[in-house]
Amino acid sequence: MTSRVSAIVDALVSAGLVDPTRSDEARGVVSRTLGMPAKQQASSRGLLVEIAGYVGGALVIASIGLFLAQQWTDFSETAQVVVLGVIAVLLAVAGVAVSRVAGGYEEMRTGGDEVRRRLTSALLTGAALAAAFTAARFVEVALVDEGEYSDWPPLVGGLTMMVLALVGYRYATTLLGQLGMIGGLFVSATTAVSMLDVEVEHEAVTMGLTFMTIGLLWVFLAEAGALREVVPARAIGAAVTLFGAQTIRFEGNTNNLAYALMLAVAFAALVMYMRTVSWPYLVVGVLGITLVVPEAIIDWTGDSLGPAGGVLVAGLTLLAASLAGFRLRQEATEELKQEPEPQDHHLVG
């Protein structure tokens, strides 16, 4: 069976249907599809073990949190940093230990044990979060005078979270790890923007463009195959991009720029939907049009339509956008069905 799985995956890689860098994951998928031994299937017992691991970890973290809440002020600043660092190390060690038990890391990595992969990722993401707090507290103790506020602790903490969450994600890929990465990126990026001391009238534009950049980066990573959970990555990236364009509107004199960017994001999302037939792009495209049209009309008419008119315009826009979305979905699906089957010129008889 093993040789047969390898032959199938090698053929798919040769045909260009599977990325060579993801051949191990493909072997796991093919193995489960062809009915490899039952130990590689997610069983109810495995799920109970996973649940027990989550509950146990939650209880440990809760007990540590309760202890720290009661004793935190009694610790010296050095002791606070050490305690947070020890928690990060313990979570990281637990994550690596979980990945090494039973079938070992390779089986987990190739998709043979989804339960351990999810549990490992949860522990490593928790370790990254604890390390981020450790780094932030260390910088606060070392560089910031007591009673003062500085942007350096959240900046360093966010960067630490992003980097270590990336390491954990590469070790055990899950959506939670992906959220850890983008969470750290958000904190560090927004803090860096605030450190630029941008003029008040330009804050919304700067922050909105920062959010859009993060969202577009996430879409690029999803389409490039750098993120294992492609559909959630598309949803996150497209939604953050649209949110960034909407954020620009929070500054009153930049409404027209916000409307133009929101419309551009909506149309770009619809174009991506036609290319990929992936629902997050359709949702963001429809939502973007639904937001920008009534907002622009109400703004440009000086709110002369009143509340009832505004609701009516929003409703009509949503209906029109939904109908257009359904039409696009039908056309994209039909076009996908009509595409010819890829010819394999690498395999002969």
How is this structure best described in words?
The protein has 349 residues and is mainly alpha-helical. It has a domain at 20-35 and 49-197. It is built from 13 helices and no strands. It is flat, with a radius of gyration of 25 Å. The model is unreliable at 36-42 and 341-349 (pLDDT under 50).
Characterize this entry briefly:
The chain has 349 residues and is mainly α. Helix content is 77%, strand content 0%.
Give the topology.
Layout: H1 2-14, H2 23-33, H3 44-71, H4 77-100, H5 104-109, H6 114-143, H7 152-171, H8 175-195, H9 203-223, H10 230-248, H11 255-276, H12 279-300, H13 306-338
Helix pairs in contact: 1-2, 3-6, 4-6, 6-7, 7-8, 8-9, 9-10, 10-11, 10-12, 11-12, 11-13, 12-13
Largest sheet: none
Q: If you average the pLDDT, what whole number results?
A: 79
Order of helices and strands: HHHHHHHHHHHHH
Structural class: mainly alpha
Q: Spans of 5+ residues with little confidence (pLDDT < 50)? A: 36-42, 341-349
CA-based gyration radius: 25 Å
End-to-end CA span = 21 Å
How many helices does DSSP assign? 13
Q: Helicity, in percent?
A: over 70%
Number of strands: 0
Shape: flat
Q: Into which percentage range does the β-strand content fall?
A: under 5%
Which features characterize this protein?
mainly alpha, 349 residues, 0% strand
